[in-house]
Amino acid sequence: MTSSGYKMNELKIGIILSTIRKGRRSQEIGNWLLKESSKYSRSHYEIIDLRDYDLPLYGKEDKLGVSKKFIEKTAEFDGFIFVLAEYNHSIPGVLKNAFDYLGKTMHNKAAAIVSYGAIGGARAAEHLRGILGQMDVACISTQIALSIFYDYDDNQNFKPLDLHDDNLKIIFKRVAEWAEALKPLR
Ligand SMILES: Cc1cc2nc3c(=O)[nH]c(=O)nc-3n(C[C@H](O)[C@H](O)[C@H](O)COP(=O)(O)O)c2cc1C
């Protein structure tokens, strides 16, 4: 057991928040996933918040060495769940910029998508699948598509519908299975 509570040989799955704006929904959705993971999974789950890494646009000078820290952090994980917002029918630019730093850090890892938006972030999710394919990340088919209308109450409190429960369990199970299966290749 390490100081962070992580047991050696346990799979590590990162919950990546795709947005950084003030008032973002990604944080609450990420926290929900973290809480649910402790009910349904024996893997170690941890939030990776792009807000903690003020990455310069890829190609610009990185005076503070933030990209090194970000790459080292990402390298610790066997798989990822992406908390994915839809911005202009695609993934948020801040996430795309982060990917451009990662390259082989991502190879042979597993992923799942929890998207959200007016139509569940479906268009952004399709773009993300293309990017993950290019990065040799195995992204499972099962996805949670949260609606910014139906999964929030009239006061904009996050109230995910029960219908997501089955897919949530599948996601935790399959990401771990795929992350484990790909271990010999990493
Ligand atoms: C720049 C921007 C572009 C957006 N474009 C879309 C879009 O194309 N489709 C969609 O369903 N929602 C879109 N939205 C609404 C987002 O789905 C909604 O604001 C969501 O909460 C954004 O994630 P965040 O709160 O984590 O930033 C957009 C929001 C922003 C800020």
Alpha-carbon distance between the two ends: 23 Å
CATH hierarchy, class: Alpha Beta
pLDDT < 50 stretches: none
Using only C-alpha atoms, the radius of gyration works out to: 16 Å
CATH fold assignment: Rossmann fold
Instruction: Give the strand content.
Output: 15-25%
Question: Structural class per helix/strand content?
Answer: alpha/beta
Q: What is the H level of CATH, i.e. the homologous superfamily?
A: Flavodoxin domain
Number of domains: 1
Q: What is the global morphology?
A: globular
Mind telling me which CATH architecture this is? 3-Layer(aba) Sandwich
Order of helices and strands: EHEHEHEHEH
Number of helices: 5
Overview of the structural elements:
There is one protein chain. This protein has 186 residues and is of the alpha/beta class. The chain has one domain: Rossmann fold. It is 35% helix and 21% strand. It contains 5 helices and 5 strands, in the order βαβαβαβαβα. The protein has helices at 26-40, 66-75, 93-102, 122-134, 165-181; strands at 12-17, 44-49, 79-85, 109-117, 137-147. Strands 2-1-3-4-5 form a 5-stranded parallel beta sheet, sandwiched between helices. Strand 3 (79-85), helix 3 and strand 4 (109-117) form a beta-alpha-beta unit. The relative contact order is 0.17. The structure holds flavin mononucleotide. Flavin mononucleotide (FMN) binds next to loops.
